[in-house]
Amino acid sequence: MAWRDSRRSWGRLLLFASSIIIGVAAMVAIQSFSENLQRDIRRQSRTLLGADMRLESSMPLPDTIARQVDALGDARTKTVSFVSMALFPKKQATRLVFVQAIDNQYPLYGKLTTNPANALDQFRQGGSPQILVDKTVLLQFALEPGDSVKVGNVMFRIAGEITALPGRPGFAAAVAPVVIIPAEYLQATELLQRGSRVTYTWLLRWDDNAEVNALAEQYRESWKEASIDVETAQERQEGISQGFRSLGSFLQLVGFVALLLGCIGVASAVKVYIKEKQSTVAILRCLGAAGKQTFQLYVLQVFAVSALSAALGVVLGSALQWLLPLVFADFLPLEDIEIALSWRAALQGWLTGTGMALLFATLPLLAVRHIAPLRILRINVEDDAQTGRLERWILYIAIFAFVAGVAWWQAGAMAALFFTLGSAVGLALLAGVAEGLMWTLRRFFPSGWPYPLRQGLANLYRPNNQTLTLLITIGLGTNLLATLFLTRDVLLQQVSLAGGGDRPNMVLFDIQTPQKEGVAKLVSDYKMPLIQQVPIVTMRLESIDGITKAEALADTTDGIRRWVFDREYRVTYRDTLIDSETIKEGTWHGDKPDDGKIYVSVASNVAEDMKVKVGSK
After folding, report:
1. Nearest CA-CA partner of 32 in 354, 296, 252
2. Which residues, in sequence order, are CB contacts of 106 under 8 Å at separation 6+?
3. Are 252 and 34 spatial neighbours (Cβ–Cβ below 8 Å)?
4. 3-class DSSP state for residue 132?
5. Quick check: bond before 107 cis, omega within 30?
6. Cα(310)–Cα(24) distance, rounded to whole angstroms?
7. Residue 18: what are its φ and ψ, rounded to 5°?
8. 136: which residues sit within 8 A by CB, 6+ positions away?
9. Sign (positive/negative) of CA torsion 392, 395, 399, 404?
10. SS3 408
11. Which end of the chain has fewer CB atoms < 10 Å from its terminal CB, N or C?
């Protein structure tokens, strides 16, 4: 009977299908792609790190630790990395680049792919200084293999462009694109001087399933004392997985909002559909059908359309996920991602789409049970289609619980709580605005206005109006877009360097003492204001009130954060404060004091982590 009744109304029933299809497709595509990405991250964890274990330090290894490292693993390689300027003679241009010196064992896992494909082989043959350059640099300066690049005091010949490097996503090249040189030419560049900021990396590989994490824990403390960071493939995998898991949860909630908006449209379409079916329902009631039977009739119709629409959304979403690797190519840590249909994502998308549409559609369907048989004889029967408040509140609670459950499944308990409460408050506010608009128009209708305006405004509160639905859907949609744009702008503001006034928009750093006057004159010659000259000395912390690092580590009650002994501090000295600085406690000693003491000031957040106060040494 549901089929026979719907044959002439399939066009109207399918009106809301597109909303469900798009919402479900977004959810399935994002979740399925996220699951494929997480699987590949777990499977290629060694490629992400380039090794089973990675050691990193700003200094060469002490002899005792070097002997320990030499005894570990079945294969090992070392890289030396630093940031420097490269000169491109063909264009007489320079570029900040990330220089990486490697040997023939690099990489231990993954592939360093180049264009042309044999560029890496030529690079490793040696004989003459050759270099591999990130593809963005070749594009920027219109270079090609065979051109020259000068790094330090060595002129290198470009063997080819780097198209993929293990563990380095494409967006990293936006700041400092990588150039790779043979380790044998590193000293000849003369870029490694006293005070140079260099990163030494040791990569280790085991051929068998060694307990790499256990070995890392065994040596971690002693290596930490020597300022050596250690990371295993599993630790890198967990860190990257967490980041992309958070991004996936956020995008899934965005897709869920799209589905939520679509389901509000479903409720509106079903409401209009039932209004048109009131005469049919009244006839059925005259023929002896109970209100419960007519309700079941239209629930079956809505369920069939919802299930079909959700299924089409699953198919579309499964196809769309093939495009996502192209969209996120520069941000993904992996070069190749194996795309496959996630049955878990498909089932979740279908259940969510069908359940959400059915719950929202049931709100207007509740009125079907109260349509009186008298409706067939009298056009205007007041209150015969009114639904009990208890029933509606039960349905509201069910919708709230369903939305919270899906959000919890996708993003966790805390995010689900804020998301659901925020959505409910937003819906309530928009519904209040819509009801207030309709009440205001009824109460203060502009009867003296021209006919087209009066007719248009009256349609906002007349029977079968869509004011409430449109205000909610457009309002929530605008809210979603505004949230995305505002979040983007906030993030961009955090990393933007805004010039203007007395704020600098260019910083020259690593200027040695003999170069100070020459650089200042160069700036003045180019008619640029020299706003500030800041001396910077790199230091480490030896002790706090006589407590050394070893003593602080042994005492777990002192509250001193471990990092304060491990980091390198950029220390400056001057006799005056600048505008952004304020003394919160103690006295500023700008001039050299007469008491022979040396006074230092410490940032308040650093002082808290050090557990120091005025008078500490």
Report:
1. 252
2. 50, 77, 79, 112, 203
3. yes
4. strand
5. yes
6. 6
7. -60, -35
8. 173, 174, 177
9. positive
10. helix
11. C
Q: Is the dihedral of CA 412, 413, 419, 420 positive or negative?
A: positive
Backbone conformation region of residue 615, classed left if phi is above 0, alpha if psi is from -120 to 50, else beta: left
pLDDT tens, position by position, 570-597:
898 888 888 778 899 998 887 777 788 8
Distance of alpha carbon 458 from alpha carbon 438, whole angstroms: 9
Whole-model pTM?
0.64
Nearest to 385 by CA among 373, 364, 368: 368
Measured CA to CA, the distance from residue 357 to residue 353 in angstroms comes to 6
Three-class SS state of 396 = helix
Closest CA to 16 of 222, 266, 238, 204: 266
Rounded Cα distance between 60 and 320, Å, is 49
The residue type of 326 is L
Angstrom distances, CA of residue 499 to CA of 170, 503, 581? 28, 6, 20
Count the residues in the chain: 617
Whether 412 contacts 249, CB under 8 Å: yes
Distance separating alpha carbons of residues 96 and 84, to the nearest angstrom: 6
Neighbours of 324 (CB within 10 A): 20
Residue 322: half-sphere exposure toward Cβ, Cα within 13 Å: 6
Q: Which own/partner contact pairs does 172-176 have at CB distance under 8 Å and 24+ positions apart? A: 172/98, 173/134, 173/136, 174/136, 175/96, 176/83, 176/96, 176/97, 176/98
At 509, list the tokens: 């750093």
CA-angle at 508, arms to 505 and 514, nearest 5°: 150
The burial of 157, by beta-carbon neighbours within 10 Å (0-12 exposed, 13-18 middle, 19 or more buried), is given as middle
Q: Is the backbone peptide bond immediately before 116 cis, with ω within 30 degrees of 0?
A: yes
pLDDT at 174: 55
Strand ranges, E, within 52-188: 53-57, 75-88, 93-102, 113-115, 130-134, 148-151, 154-164, 178-182
Q: Coil, helix or strand for 580?
A: coil
Confidence class of residue 329 from pLDDT cuts 50, 70 and 90?
Answer: low
Closest CA to 277 of 260, 253, 256, 301: 301
Instruction: Report pLDDT for 392.
Output: 80
HSE at residue 580, side-chain half, CA atoms within 13 A, is 3
Q: Are 231 and 54 in contact (CB under 8 A)?
A: yes
Cross-strand pairs, 116: none
The helix (H) or strand (E) run that includes residue 231 is: strand 229-232
Report the run of H or E that residue 569 belongs to, with start and end.
strand 569-571
What does the DSSP 8-state code read for residue 54? E
CA proximity to 153, closest of 104, 98, 84, 97: 84
Q: What is the pLDDT of residues 265-324, one digit of tens each?
A: 788 778 877 777 778 888 888 888 887 888 888 888 888 888 888 899 899 888 888 887
Torsion of CA 518, 521, 523, 525, to 10 degrees: -130
Among candidate residues 425, 367, 433, 435, the one with its CA nearest the CA of residue 400 = 425
Listed in order, strand segments (DSSP E) in 89-228 are 93-102, 113-115, 130-134, 148-151, 154-164, 178-182, 199-205
CB distance 587 to 552 below 8 Å: no
